[in-house]
Amino acid sequence: MALRSDWSTELCPVRRSLDVLGDPWVLLIVRDVLHGNGRFEQLRDNLGISEAVLSRRLRTMREAGLLTTADYERDGRTRQKYVATEAAADLLPLLQQLAIWGERHTAEPEGGAHMALVHETCGAETTRAETCSACGEPLRPEDMTWVKPWLGTAHRLRAPGD
Fold first, then answer.
1. In this structure, are residues 112 and 106 in contact, taking their beta carbons and an 8 Å threshold?
2. Which 3 state secondary structure label does DSSP give 62?
3. How far, in Å, CA of 136 to CA of 127, rounded?
4. How far is the C-alpha of 64 from the C-alpha of 59, rounded, in Å?
5. Which of 41, 47, 108, 127 has its CA 20 to 30 A from that of 73?
6. Across all residues in the chain, what is the average pLDDT?
7. Residue 15, number of CB atoms within 10 A of its CB
8. What pLDDT digit, counting tens, does each position of 10-33 carry?
9. Using CA of residue 111, residue 117, residue 118, residue 122, what is the dihedral sign?
10. All domains of the chain, ordered by start, with CATH?
11. Distance (Å, rounded) from C-alpha 135 to C-alpha 61?
12. DSSP string over 112-158
């Protein structure tokens, strides 16, 4: 999945991580899968990504251990959706920190609104990425809701394998 070079055998863990996570599509796909949007069509439509690019990213993400597949029924047919692995769930603090950073350090476009990261265990909005700023508990995907007012929705995240 490297953008420019193969860093998979580098001694530096940052370089090895970027070998897997350095493509922006990877984090956006993980975000959507954690939000329960793991069907190919959902990912394609939500991300505005071409089918060819999405297929390549999903294949490499499975090979990297970020995603697995699960069967579901639709129109009398068994299909597959993508679900997060523990490795993908471990990216939650990174994704949440990116959201927090974006709220603080980028200009909000017209029509935008504050995205709240709500820790469902205590019901409070957190301003930290790894532990709840209100109660101090570790933040797990299945305990988090991202409130996106510009979409008029609140998305409860999914546990790995869910």
1. no
2. helix
3. 11
4. 9
5. 47
6. 94
7. 15
8. 889 999 999 899 999 999 999 999
9. negative
10. 13-87 (1.10.10.10), 91-156 (no CATH)
11. 34
12. --PPEEEETTTTEEPSSSSB-TTT-PBP-GGGEEEEETTTTEEEE--
Determine the Cα–Cα distance for residues 132 and 40; give it in Å rounded to an integer.
32
CA 22 to chain centre: 14
pLDDT of amino acid 4: 62
Residues 68/83, Cβ–Cβ less than 8 Å: yes
Q: How confident is the model at residue 142 (pLDDT cuts 50, 70, 90)?
A: very high
DSSP state of 57: H
Place of tokens 């609140």: 154
- Residue 30 has a pLDDT of 98
pLDDT(62) > 60:
yes
